[in-house]
Amino acid sequence: MALWHLGSGEVTSLRLWRTGEHTFRVIQYDEPVDVLTNYDYILLDRKYEPLLHQLGEQLLFTPVTVTDQVRQLVWNNYVEVKIKHSIDAEQMDQPFAGTWRIFSFDREHVFVSPRLKEAFQQVRGQQLVFSLGLSRFG
Prior knowledge:
The protein is mainly beta.
């Protein structure tokens, strides 16, 4: 079975600027959501951290701090995820049905295997959406 694109269930235009190894600053304000991505970061809400621990060597993740200086807000509820394996469009249809696998696509998109998708959906309070393969990229 093909991979699933993992995204936030809520739309946001929130954009961040990296200010340090583990710190970010808000440069375009909107509401925070479970997944924040851009060309140089993938951030997930810390409620997914227990699941991320189970992925072993497939990724590295580190707690980060996001600061909104204008509104004087600080968020410590994110981890930055560095996914070790990337995938391209031709590899999307490979069979990953029985495994927990996670990949990055084009540096800012997250794709997961069907079993890992099911595990993410079991996280209490999750607000994620999944689309099959590249179906939302057309």
